[in-house]
Design a protein that fits this description.
Elements lengths: L2 H91 L5
Amino acid sequence: MTAIGSVLSAGCFLVAGAYICVGLYLLGQMLIESIRDRLERRRQRRIARIEAELDEKQERLRQAIFSLATQLAAERDEASRQMTRQARLSAEKTPPTS
């Protein structure tokens, strides 16, 4: 092998090594990007699940509040009827003062 041939051969190895390094670098970048994307999708699914749970809890609380308000209104109406009834009975038993 001549000196020029061995220089060319060494140059080819250097170029091949550079291509391998660039290829490994690009492969690593693709792997990192893939992992990043997967983590981001997982994070988005987790956020969506938590928001759905919060929406469900909010709806249950809204229904509970509505139910309690309805019960409270019914109790208020009943108390009002009782007070009116007691006032009538009291007025009928008390003789008028002259």
